[in-house]
Write a structure and sequence with these properties.
heterodimer; A: about 325 residues; alpha+beta; OB fold (Dihydrolipoamide Acetyltransferase, E2P); 3 domains; 6-stranded mixed β-sheet; 4-stranded antiparallel β-sheet; 14 strands; B: about 325 residues; alpha/beta; Rossmann fold; two-stranded antiparallel sheet; 12 helices; globular; binds thiamine diphosphate; binds magnesium ion
Chain lengths: ~325, ~325
């Protein structure tokens, strides 16, 4: 008897895609016969049998992504049990349903040690995004990071266990940090050189609006500036107005929500509310902390990343972006 | 192959060492494919007679430098299975406390100055080691293992020049396995390989790297001559790797025909051929050889089991052996 495994064929390879079996369950096998084709991130390769016998206990099917090292069949002396008994469900079964869980409300236990970052392999991240799975949910259980594709199996089980049927997109988070000195120098310079007072909140609204427009090509950007003590104000295209001038308010629906935390003890908000993209700007010593929450219904990951990067660049070096 | 019987013990040790390398590699290959081992690894299987023939001509105090395909050199120079597997798996008891892995394993206790992931990277180290032996008045010999592909590295020509000028006790051992990565040697190396050394006035030899006795005879002679100050020397060993360039290189037909692989396996296997000779000469019978094989396979399997269960180093070791205090 010899196990047939999904082989690791390269560095940092989490899974191999079983392109197709070249032998059927129960077939007689000789050493050197091509058993199946596997696709890695580099190419498609043929995997040969390492033993003589019969192909039995086949537990993975064509097209499946299988974690490397996993036993997917056994070459046995007899042709009994050609197919594996239904044990734990094969890993890639849930690929087609996009049923994601809501974001956990409790912060992930790992948030402390990883600064809120979820550590996962690029492939695990990509598959999770494609399937609408939220790695944060796994983090909330305290499962040790970094996550690999094999961890997604656990994650796929989770919403079902919770009896979750509502289809809603997972909240995603992007965080960034940039130096405050650029903005501070800029405000001082405006004051000294032109006696123009630029407020932090005006600067935040304008830069956020500009970065959002650049990343998403949204024609009209309405920023809902949250005010925990009073009424939120809605600013229309604040990046089109001079920083020192008042921005016109509007009663249109907001494009995103902005929390200015720079004058408070709070540094970052992660409320997991996916209704609108939500940006919070806090300060920490000499840095601004940017936290952005959104879901795939608002924009794709690349746009979210472009938005946060663009905002950080503007805050770090305002002049560069204004002239 | 020549004079038998007198050296039964030596012969059996050579046989045993070759089988140890093969068993080690079979286990390492499995560990890698089943995703239990990090990094990447290159199998030495098929080339055993090279490492064993040469290292059996060396003393513990003699030095070797090794390559990315280095497990064979390490075993042949006397390394222990458990510590080697622990190293491959990143465990605390590994030769480099798990920091080196397959391509940076070093066993100073047996004079293995280390594997080297940089093709040709150990040529300077080997030559420096020979220089230090000479300056300190010791009779240590250093053997520098490298592949045919490494002859394309300029360092080889710098060090051969120096070694020849200074008559250093170093042997450059070029393991010509016919390929570097996925390219045939005759497509990457113009002219003759031994001719390169001869250009520096270095005596160069070509030997069948599948014949452990032929390799050992030549190595004995050259090591003795090195000790007398007649070095350096150059050997080209004609050999073959059974596996792919690395463990994941499982479909090779696009660069290497299956018939060719089969020919080497069937007719030129260093272990099978040596076993045939040993039994034909009446030095041992097949049953004894089978017992040796079984013992060693069991040894290797239990070393793997041990290493899989062994402890990872504590995080506090992360900078251990990385920074050295300067006096
Ligand atoms: C300086 C350098 N260049 C390229 C590589 C990539 N590389 C790894 S092994 C190899 C081929 C080496 O061929 P050879 O010296 O014949 O050794 P073999 O693998 O055949 O034992 C190459 C090009 C490397 N490791 N180092
Ligand atoms: Mg080579």
């Amino acid at each position: 008897m010899a196990d047939v495994i999904m082989p690791a064929l390269g560095m940092a390879q989490d899974t191999g895609k079983l392109v197709q079996w070249m032998k059927a369950p129960g077939d007689a096998i000789s050493t050197g016969d091509v058993l199946f084709e596997v696709e890695t991130d580099k190419s498609v390769m043929e995997v040969e049998a390492q033993a003589d016998g019969f192909l039995t206990q086949v537990s993975a099917s064509d097209g499946e992504d299988v974690p490397v090292g996993q036993v997917i069949a056994v070459i046995s002396a007899t042709a009994e049990n050609p197919v594996a008994a239904p044990a734990p469900p094969p890993v890639a079964q849930a690929v087609t349903e996009v049923v994601a869980a809501p974001t956990p409300t409790a912060p992930a236990p790992d948030a402390v040690t990883t600064g809120g970052r979820i550590l996962a392999s690029p492939k695990a991240r990509r598959l999770a995004a494609q399937e609408g799975l939220d790695l944060g949910q796994l983090a909330a259980t305290g499962a040790p990071m970094p996550y690999h594709v094999s961890d997604l199996a656990t994650l796929r089980e989770m919403p079902a266990a919770a009896g979750q049927t509502v289809v809603m997109a997972a909240t995603k988070q992007i965080m960034a940090r940039c130096q405050r000195s650029g903005s501070r120098d800029f405000m001082e310079w405006m004051q000294a050189d032109g006696a123009i007072t630029v407020t932090t909140s005006a600067m935040f609204a304008s830069f956020a609006s500009g970065a959002f427009r650049a990343a998403t090509e949204t024609p009209t950007v309405v920023v809902q500036v949250a005010d925990p003590d009073g009424t939120d104000i809605f600013l229309r295209n604040p990046d089109f107005t001079r920083l020192s001038a008042p921005v016109s308010e509007t009663d249109e629906d907001a494009t995103f929500v902005l929390h200015d935390l720079s004058d408070s003890f709070l540094t970052s908000l992660r409320l997991g509310d996916t209704a609108l993209p939500t940006l919070s700007l806090g300060s920490d010593g000499d840095s601004y902390l940017i936290t952005f929450e959104f879901s795939s219904e608002h924009m794709d990951d690349a746009q979210g990343i472009a938005f946060v990067s663009g905002l950080a660049r503007r805050l770090a070096d305002p002049l560069h972006h204004l002239v | 192959m020549t004079d038998a019987k007198t050296n039964t013990e030596d012969y059996l040790r050579m046989y045993r060492q070759m089988v140890r390398i093969r068993s080690f590699e079979d286990q390492a290959n499995q560990l890698y494919l089943s995703a239990k081992m990090p990094g990447l690894t290159h199998m030495y299987s098929g080339e055993e007679a090279v490492a064993v023939g040469i290292c059996e001509a060396l003393k513990v105090t003699d030095k070797i430098t090794s390559t990315h395909r280095g497990h064979g050199h390490c075993v042949a120079k006397g390394a222990d299975f458990k510590q080697m597997f622990c190293e491959l798996l990143g465990k605390e008891e590994g030769y480099c406390r798990g920091k080196g892995g397959s391509m940076h394993i070093a066993d100073q206790s047996n004079g293995n100055l280390g594997a080297n992931a940089i093709v040709g990277g150990s040529m300077g180290i080997a030559t420096g080691s020979a220089l230090s032996a000479k300056r300190l008045g010791r009779d240590d010999v250093t053997v520098c293992f490298f592949g045919d592909g490494a002859t394309a590295q300029g360092l080889l020509y710098e060090v051969m020049n120096m070694a020849a000028l200074w008559s250093l006790p170093v042997i450059y051992a070029c393991e010509n396995n016919g390929y570097s990565e996925y390219t045939r040697t005759d497509e990457i190396a113009a002219g003759s390989i031994v001719g390169r050394a001869e250009a520096f006035g270095i005596e160069a030899f070509k030997v069948d790297g599948q014949d452990v006795l032929a390799v050992n005879d030549l190595a004995q002679t050259l090591v003795a001559r090195c000790r007398k100050g007649e070095g350096p020397f150059f050997i080209e060993l004609e050999t073959y790797r059974y596996h792919g360039h690395h463990v994941g290189d499982i479909n090779r037909e696009y660069y290497r025909p299956k018939d060719e692989e089969k020919e080497w396996h069937t007719n030129r296997d260093p272990i099978t051929n040596f076993a045939k000779w040993l039994t034909a000469e009446g030095i041992v019978d097949q049953a004894e050889l089978d017992t040796i094989q079984t013992e060693i396979k069991t040894d290797a399997a239990s070393a793997v089991a041990y290493a899989l269960d062994a402890k990872y180093p504590d995080v506090s070791e992360v900078d251990m052996h990385v920074f050295a205090e300067t006096p």
